Write the C-alpha coordinates for this entry.
Amino acid sequence: MSTVLVPKESLPGETRVAATPDTVKRYVQAGLQVSVEAGAGAEAGFPDDAFAQAGGKVLPTAEAQQAWSTADLVVKVQPPSPDEAGRLKEDAVLVSVMTPVLNLPAVQALQAGGVTTLALDLVPRISRAQSMDVLSSQATVAGYKAVLLGASHMPKLCPLLMTAAGTVPPAKVVVFGAGVAGLMAIATAKRLGCVVEATDVRLAAREQVLSLGARFIDVEGMEDLEDEHGYAKPATPEFLERQRKEVAKRVAEADLVITTALIPGRKAPMLVPEDMVASMPPGGVIVDMAVESGGNCALSKPGEIVKTHDVTIVGVKNLPATVPHHASELFAKNVLALLKPFLKEGELTLDPEDEVIAGATLTRAGEVCHEMTKNALAEGKA
Protein backbone atom coordinates (compact mmCIF):
# COMPACT_ATOMS: atom_id res chain seq x y z
CA MET A 1 0.00 0.00 0.00
CA SER A 2 1.45 3.36 -1.09
CA THR A 3 1.51 6.11 1.53
CA VAL A 4 0.62 9.70 0.69
CA LEU A 5 1.58 12.84 2.61
CA VAL A 6 -0.26 16.13 2.24
CA PRO A 7 1.90 18.69 4.09
CA LYS A 8 0.97 22.19 5.12
CA GLU A 9 2.54 24.66 2.72
CA SER A 10 5.65 26.27 4.20
CA LEU A 11 5.88 29.29 1.88
CA PRO A 12 4.62 32.43 3.66
CA GLY A 13 1.30 33.57 2.24
CA GLU A 14 0.46 30.25 0.59
CA THR A 15 -3.02 29.35 1.78
CA ARG A 16 -3.85 26.59 -0.71
CA VAL A 17 -3.57 22.86 -0.13
CA ALA A 18 -2.78 20.17 -2.71
CA ALA A 19 -5.52 17.75 -1.63
CA THR A 20 -9.04 18.36 -0.36
CA PRO A 21 -11.28 16.04 1.67
CA ASP A 22 -12.94 15.02 -1.60
CA THR A 23 -9.68 13.97 -3.30
CA VAL A 24 -8.36 12.37 -0.09
CA LYS A 25 -11.50 10.22 -0.08
CA ARG A 26 -10.76 9.17 -3.65
CA TYR A 27 -7.13 8.29 -2.83
CA VAL A 28 -8.34 6.19 0.09
CA GLN A 29 -10.91 4.47 -2.14
CA ALA A 30 -8.04 3.63 -4.51
CA GLY A 31 -6.33 1.81 -1.64
CA LEU A 32 -3.77 4.43 -0.59
CA GLN A 33 -2.98 5.44 2.97
CA VAL A 34 -3.21 9.22 3.26
CA SER A 35 -1.70 11.40 5.99
CA VAL A 36 -2.51 15.10 6.21
CA GLU A 37 -0.54 17.56 8.31
CA ALA A 38 -2.72 19.27 10.92
CA GLY A 39 -3.90 22.65 9.66
CA ALA A 40 -2.89 21.93 6.06
CA GLY A 41 -6.29 22.99 4.71
CA ALA A 42 -7.44 25.32 7.48
CA GLU A 43 -6.85 28.59 5.59
CA ALA A 44 -8.65 27.20 2.55
CA GLY A 45 -11.71 26.27 4.58
CA PHE A 46 -10.96 22.55 4.93
CA PRO A 47 -10.74 21.65 8.65
CA ASP A 48 -8.81 18.66 9.98
CA ASP A 49 -12.07 16.89 10.85
CA ALA A 50 -13.12 16.93 7.20
CA PHE A 51 -9.91 15.17 6.18
CA ALA A 52 -10.35 12.61 8.97
CA GLN A 53 -13.94 11.91 7.91
CA ALA A 54 -12.66 11.38 4.35
CA GLY A 55 -10.37 8.62 5.59
CA GLY A 56 -7.15 10.59 5.99
CA LYS A 57 -4.95 10.42 9.08
CA VAL A 58 -4.31 13.87 10.54
CA LEU A 59 -0.75 14.18 11.84
CA PRO A 60 0.58 16.78 14.28
CA THR A 61 3.26 18.93 12.68
CA ALA A 62 6.15 17.10 14.37
CA GLU A 63 4.94 13.73 13.07
CA ALA A 64 4.22 15.18 9.63
CA GLN A 65 7.81 16.45 9.41
CA GLN A 66 9.05 12.92 10.10
CA ALA A 67 6.60 11.49 7.56
CA TRP A 68 8.50 13.21 4.73
CA SER A 69 11.17 10.51 4.99
CA THR A 70 8.75 7.58 4.78
CA ALA A 71 6.05 8.74 2.35
CA ASP A 72 5.88 7.11 -1.08
CA LEU A 73 4.06 10.14 -2.50
CA VAL A 74 4.07 13.78 -1.40
CA VAL A 75 1.65 16.24 -3.00
CA LYS A 76 2.28 19.98 -2.64
CA VAL A 77 1.27 23.28 -4.18
CA GLN A 78 4.56 25.19 -3.99
CA PRO A 79 8.06 23.83 -4.70
CA PRO A 80 9.68 22.20 -1.67
CA SER A 81 12.49 23.97 0.11
CA PRO A 82 15.91 22.33 -0.35
CA ASP A 83 15.55 21.02 3.22
CA GLU A 84 12.15 19.47 2.48
CA ALA A 85 13.44 17.99 -0.76
CA GLY A 86 16.41 16.49 1.05
CA ARG A 87 14.14 14.66 3.49
CA LEU A 88 12.34 12.60 0.85
CA LYS A 89 13.36 8.97 0.59
CA GLU A 90 14.90 7.49 -2.52
CA ASP A 91 12.27 6.50 -5.12
CA ALA A 92 9.64 8.70 -3.47
CA VAL A 93 7.37 10.63 -5.84
CA LEU A 94 6.87 14.38 -5.39
CA VAL A 95 4.05 16.15 -7.20
CA SER A 96 4.02 19.95 -7.09
CA VAL A 97 4.51 23.10 -9.09
CA MET A 98 8.28 23.46 -9.41
CA THR A 99 9.25 26.49 -11.58
CA PRO A 100 12.56 24.60 -11.74
CA VAL A 101 14.84 27.28 -13.19
CA LEU A 102 14.03 29.47 -10.20
CA ASN A 103 14.44 26.65 -7.67
CA LEU A 104 17.70 25.00 -8.68
CA PRO A 105 18.84 24.16 -5.10
CA ALA A 106 15.62 22.17 -4.55
CA VAL A 107 16.06 20.46 -7.92
CA GLN A 108 19.61 19.47 -6.96
CA ALA A 109 18.39 18.04 -3.65
CA LEU A 110 15.68 16.03 -5.43
CA GLN A 111 18.21 14.78 -7.97
CA ALA A 112 20.70 13.79 -5.29
CA GLY A 113 18.01 11.95 -3.33
CA GLY A 114 16.84 9.88 -6.29
CA VAL A 115 13.34 11.34 -6.07
CA THR A 116 10.92 11.18 -9.00
CA THR A 117 9.54 14.69 -9.38
CA LEU A 118 6.42 15.40 -11.41
CA ALA A 119 6.38 19.14 -11.99
CA LEU A 120 2.81 20.25 -12.54
CA ASP A 121 3.98 23.29 -14.49
CA LEU A 122 5.67 20.95 -17.01
CA VAL A 123 2.56 18.90 -17.79
CA PRO A 124 2.30 19.01 -21.61
CA ARG A 125 -0.48 21.10 -23.12
CA ILE A 126 -2.27 18.28 -24.94
CA SER A 127 -5.97 17.41 -25.04
CA ARG A 128 -5.62 14.41 -22.74
CA ALA A 129 -3.91 16.53 -20.09
CA GLN A 130 -6.44 19.37 -19.90
CA SER A 131 -7.92 18.00 -16.67
CA MET A 132 -4.40 17.99 -15.16
CA ASP A 133 -3.48 21.56 -16.11
CA VAL A 134 -2.92 23.48 -12.87
CA LEU A 135 -1.56 26.49 -14.74
CA SER A 136 -4.91 26.97 -16.44
CA SER A 137 -7.05 26.27 -13.40
CA GLN A 138 -5.08 28.65 -11.22
CA ALA A 139 -4.91 31.29 -13.95
CA THR A 140 -8.69 31.17 -14.12
CA VAL A 141 -8.90 31.98 -10.42
CA ALA A 142 -6.25 34.70 -10.72
CA GLY A 143 -7.92 36.40 -13.69
CA TYR A 144 -11.20 36.59 -11.81
CA LYS A 145 -9.63 37.97 -8.64
CA ALA A 146 -7.49 40.52 -10.51
CA VAL A 147 -10.60 42.31 -11.77
CA LEU A 148 -12.21 42.32 -8.33
CA LEU A 149 -9.01 43.77 -6.84
CA GLY A 150 -8.90 46.41 -9.53
CA ALA A 151 -12.56 47.32 -9.04
CA SER A 152 -12.07 47.62 -5.28
CA HIS A 153 -9.31 50.20 -5.79
CA MET A 154 -11.16 52.23 -8.42
CA PRO A 155 -12.89 55.43 -7.31
CA LYS A 156 -15.58 54.72 -9.89
CA LEU A 157 -18.41 52.25 -10.40
CA CYS A 158 -18.10 49.57 -13.08
CA PRO A 159 -21.48 49.40 -14.86
CA LEU A 160 -23.52 51.92 -16.80
CA LEU A 161 -26.16 53.32 -14.45
CA MET A 162 -29.22 55.34 -15.46
CA THR A 163 -30.42 57.08 -12.30
CA ALA A 164 -32.69 59.96 -11.36
CA ALA A 165 -29.54 61.85 -10.41
CA GLY A 166 -28.03 61.34 -13.85
CA THR A 167 -26.15 58.79 -15.93
CA VAL A 168 -22.99 57.02 -14.73
CA PRO A 169 -20.88 55.86 -17.70
CA PRO A 170 -19.34 52.38 -17.59
CA ALA A 171 -15.72 51.93 -16.56
CA LYS A 172 -13.21 51.35 -19.34
CA VAL A 173 -10.92 48.31 -18.97
CA VAL A 174 -7.89 47.29 -21.02
CA VAL A 175 -6.54 43.74 -20.67
CA PHE A 176 -3.03 42.85 -21.83
CA GLY A 177 -2.85 39.17 -22.81
CA ALA A 178 -5.72 36.89 -23.79
CA GLY A 179 -4.57 33.58 -22.37
CA VAL A 180 -6.57 31.79 -19.69
CA ALA A 181 -6.07 34.53 -17.08
CA GLY A 182 -6.75 37.31 -19.55
CA LEU A 183 -9.92 35.73 -20.89
CA MET A 184 -11.26 35.23 -17.37
CA ALA A 185 -10.39 38.86 -16.58
CA ILE A 186 -12.26 39.98 -19.70
CA ALA A 187 -15.30 37.86 -18.83
CA THR A 188 -15.34 39.10 -15.24
CA ALA A 189 -15.01 42.76 -16.24
CA LYS A 190 -17.83 42.32 -18.76
CA ARG A 191 -20.03 40.75 -16.08
CA LEU A 192 -19.39 43.80 -13.91
CA GLY A 193 -20.64 45.98 -16.75
CA CYS A 194 -17.35 47.44 -17.96
CA VAL A 195 -16.42 48.32 -21.53
CA VAL A 196 -13.48 46.04 -22.26
CA GLU A 197 -10.69 46.10 -24.85
CA ALA A 198 -7.92 43.52 -25.02
CA THR A 199 -4.61 43.05 -26.76
CA ASP A 200 -2.48 39.98 -27.45
CA VAL A 201 0.42 39.19 -29.77
CA ARG A 202 -1.41 36.08 -31.01
CA LEU A 203 -3.91 36.71 -33.76
CA ALA A 204 -5.72 33.51 -32.76
CA ALA A 205 -6.78 35.26 -29.54
CA ARG A 206 -8.88 37.75 -31.49
CA GLU A 207 -11.86 35.44 -31.96
CA GLN A 208 -11.87 34.44 -28.28
CA VAL A 209 -11.83 38.07 -27.15
CA LEU A 210 -14.67 39.00 -29.49
CA SER A 211 -16.71 35.99 -28.32
CA LEU A 212 -16.69 37.44 -24.80
CA GLY A 213 -18.11 40.74 -26.01
CA ALA A 214 -14.87 42.70 -25.75
CA ARG A 215 -13.05 44.62 -28.46
CA PHE A 216 -9.73 43.35 -29.79
CA ILE A 217 -6.91 45.83 -30.38
CA ASP A 218 -5.44 44.83 -33.74
CA VAL A 219 -1.70 45.34 -34.30
CA GLU A 220 0.04 44.59 -37.59
CA GLY A 221 2.33 41.52 -37.42
CA MET A 222 0.70 39.60 -34.56
CA GLU A 223 -0.02 36.56 -36.76
CA ASP A 224 3.69 35.72 -36.65
CA LEU A 225 3.95 35.59 -32.87
CA GLU A 226 2.41 32.25 -31.92
CA ASP A 227 4.44 29.05 -31.63
CA GLU A 228 3.33 25.49 -32.48
CA HIS A 229 2.06 24.98 -28.91
CA GLY A 230 -0.15 28.07 -28.96
CA TYR A 231 2.13 30.11 -26.69
CA ALA A 232 3.26 33.65 -27.43
CA LYS A 233 6.75 33.89 -28.86
CA PRO A 234 9.10 36.74 -27.87
CA ALA A 235 8.08 39.80 -29.85
CA THR A 236 10.46 41.91 -31.90
CA PRO A 237 11.21 45.46 -30.74
CA GLU A 238 9.48 46.75 -33.87
CA PHE A 239 6.25 44.89 -33.11
CA LEU A 240 6.32 45.92 -29.47
CA GLU A 241 6.65 49.57 -30.54
CA ARG A 242 3.67 49.27 -32.88
CA GLN A 243 1.69 47.56 -30.14
CA ARG A 244 2.72 50.18 -27.60
CA LYS A 245 1.48 53.05 -29.78
CA GLU A 246 -1.83 51.36 -30.55
CA VAL A 247 -2.51 50.26 -27.00
CA ALA A 248 -1.29 53.54 -25.47
CA LYS A 249 -4.30 55.31 -26.98
CA ARG A 250 -6.64 52.99 -25.06
CA VAL A 251 -4.65 53.02 -21.82
CA ALA A 252 -4.80 56.83 -21.78
CA GLU A 253 -8.58 56.54 -21.41
CA ALA A 254 -8.73 53.40 -19.23
CA ASP A 255 -9.99 53.32 -15.66
CA LEU A 256 -8.52 49.85 -15.11
CA VAL A 257 -5.65 48.01 -16.80
CA ILE A 258 -5.03 44.28 -16.21
CA THR A 259 -1.73 42.86 -17.43
CA THR A 260 -1.28 39.08 -17.78
CA ALA A 261 1.48 38.69 -20.37
CA LEU A 262 3.97 35.90 -19.64
CA ILE A 263 6.52 34.00 -21.75
CA PRO A 264 7.38 30.52 -20.39
CA GLY A 265 10.93 30.38 -19.04
CA ARG A 266 11.60 34.07 -19.59
CA LYS A 267 11.15 37.38 -17.81
CA ALA A 268 7.71 38.90 -18.37
CA PRO A 269 7.67 41.51 -21.16
CA MET A 270 7.52 45.13 -20.03
CA LEU A 271 4.41 46.52 -21.71
CA VAL A 272 3.36 49.50 -19.58
CA PRO A 273 6.21 52.03 -19.26
CA GLU A 274 6.06 54.98 -16.90
CA ASP A 275 4.82 57.42 -19.55
CA MET A 276 1.84 55.14 -20.23
CA VAL A 277 1.06 55.01 -16.51
CA ALA A 278 1.22 58.80 -16.33
CA SER A 279 -1.21 59.09 -19.26
CA MET A 280 -4.03 57.34 -17.38
CA PRO A 281 -6.87 59.35 -15.87
CA PRO A 282 -6.48 60.29 -12.18
CA GLY A 283 -7.74 57.42 -10.05
CA GLY A 284 -6.78 54.83 -12.65
CA VAL A 285 -5.75 51.35 -11.51
CA ILE A 286 -3.27 48.82 -12.90
CA VAL A 287 -3.25 45.19 -11.72
CA ASP A 288 0.04 43.58 -12.78
CA MET A 289 -0.56 39.82 -12.75
CA ALA A 290 2.97 39.19 -14.05
CA VAL A 291 4.62 40.98 -11.13
CA GLU A 292 6.29 37.80 -9.81
CA SER A 293 7.98 37.21 -13.18
CA GLY A 294 9.45 40.68 -13.54
CA GLY A 295 6.22 42.56 -14.18
CA ASN A 296 4.49 43.97 -17.25
CA CYS A 297 4.39 47.44 -15.69
CA ALA A 298 7.60 49.41 -15.16
CA LEU A 299 6.42 50.75 -11.79
CA SER A 300 4.87 47.66 -10.20
CA LYS A 301 6.47 46.18 -7.09
CA PRO A 302 6.05 42.53 -6.05
CA GLY A 303 3.78 42.21 -3.04
CA GLU A 304 3.00 45.93 -2.87
CA ILE A 305 0.24 48.35 -3.81
CA VAL A 306 1.82 51.63 -4.83
CA LYS A 307 0.41 54.94 -6.01
CA THR A 308 2.21 57.12 -8.53
CA HIS A 309 1.03 59.69 -11.11
CA ASP A 310 -2.38 59.45 -9.39
CA VAL A 311 -2.56 55.80 -10.51
CA THR A 312 -2.78 52.82 -8.13
CA ILE A 313 -0.59 49.89 -9.18
CA VAL A 314 -1.53 46.57 -7.60
CA GLY A 315 1.33 44.07 -7.35
CA VAL A 316 -0.33 41.43 -5.18
CA LYS A 317 1.53 38.12 -5.54
CA ASN A 318 0.03 34.68 -5.82
CA LEU A 319 -3.53 35.72 -6.58
CA PRO A 320 -4.91 32.16 -6.47
CA ALA A 321 -3.92 32.00 -2.79
CA THR A 322 -6.32 34.89 -2.14
CA VAL A 323 -9.19 32.59 -3.19
CA PRO A 324 -7.84 29.45 -1.52
CA HIS A 325 -10.98 27.35 -1.22
CA HIS A 326 -11.88 27.04 -4.87
CA ALA A 327 -8.27 27.36 -6.00
CA SER A 328 -7.44 24.32 -3.82
CA GLU A 329 -10.43 22.38 -5.10
CA LEU A 330 -9.34 22.89 -8.69
CA PHE A 331 -5.67 22.23 -7.94
CA ALA A 332 -6.43 19.02 -6.03
CA LYS A 333 -8.62 17.72 -8.87
CA ASN A 334 -5.80 18.44 -11.34
CA VAL A 335 -3.38 16.40 -9.20
CA LEU A 336 -5.84 13.52 -8.86
CA ALA A 337 -6.44 13.50 -12.63
CA LEU A 338 -2.69 13.22 -13.20
CA LEU A 339 -2.19 10.33 -10.78
CA LYS A 340 -5.45 8.37 -11.13
CA PRO A 341 -4.47 6.34 -14.24
CA PHE A 342 -1.45 5.00 -12.34
CA LEU A 343 -3.21 4.00 -9.10
CA LYS A 344 -3.81 0.26 -9.10
CA GLU A 345 -4.54 -2.03 -6.15
CA GLY A 346 -3.34 0.52 -3.61
CA GLU A 347 -0.05 1.22 -5.38
CA LEU A 348 1.19 4.17 -7.43
CA THR A 349 3.02 2.81 -10.46
CA LEU A 350 4.07 5.51 -12.91
CA ASP A 351 4.69 4.69 -16.55
CA PRO A 352 7.79 6.68 -17.61
CA GLU A 353 6.86 6.15 -21.26
CA ASP A 354 3.44 7.76 -20.86
CA GLU A 355 3.38 11.06 -22.78
CA VAL A 356 2.07 13.11 -19.87
CA ILE A 357 4.34 11.54 -17.24
CA ALA A 358 7.38 11.84 -19.50
CA GLY A 359 6.67 15.52 -20.13
CA ALA A 360 6.08 16.32 -16.46
CA THR A 361 9.07 14.41 -15.09
CA LEU A 362 11.69 16.82 -13.76
CA THR A 363 13.94 14.35 -11.93
CA ARG A 364 14.11 10.56 -11.87
CA ALA A 365 16.69 8.05 -10.62
CA GLY A 366 19.28 10.72 -9.91
CA GLU A 367 18.90 12.45 -13.28
CA VAL A 368 17.43 15.80 -14.31
CA CYS A 369 15.07 15.07 -17.20
CA HIS A 370 14.03 18.62 -18.13
CA GLU A 371 16.40 20.07 -20.71
CA MET A 372 16.06 23.75 -19.76
CA THR A 373 16.68 22.96 -16.09
CA LYS A 374 19.61 20.72 -16.97
CA ASN A 375 21.16 23.57 -18.96
CA ALA A 376 20.55 26.05 -16.14
CA LEU A 377 22.29 23.72 -13.69
CA ALA A 378 25.22 23.28 -16.07
CA GLU A 379 25.57 27.05 -16.47
CA GLY A 380 25.49 27.49 -12.71
CA LYS A 381 28.33 25.01 -12.26
CA ALA A 382 30.43 26.52 -15.04
Residues 134-153 form the longest helix (20 residues). The chain has two domains: 3-132+324-377, 139-322. The longest strand covers residues 33-37.
